[in-house]
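One thing: mind reviewing this one?
=====
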Amino acid sequence: MQDPTFLIELAHTKMPFGKFKGRDLIDLPEHYVVWYHAKGFPKGKIGQMLGLVYELKLNGLEHLIREIKRKHQQPPKR
């Protein structure tokens, strides 16, 4: 992960599909992220982000993303 804006983007990304569609990725329930980890994350950027959310939750570091979200405004839509 070399792009320094990746964490800022993660802080503002919402789940695009499924049971928790529209919820911030960092706010997904832990059991759901663990389920995805066991099932396999989707391909692409959303999968990378979910993988990082899994690692952050596993290590109790969600607060870092919430702090980034507070410090950085919503990035512009592409």
Q: What stands out?
A: The chain has a mean pLDDT of 91. Residues 6-71 form one domain.
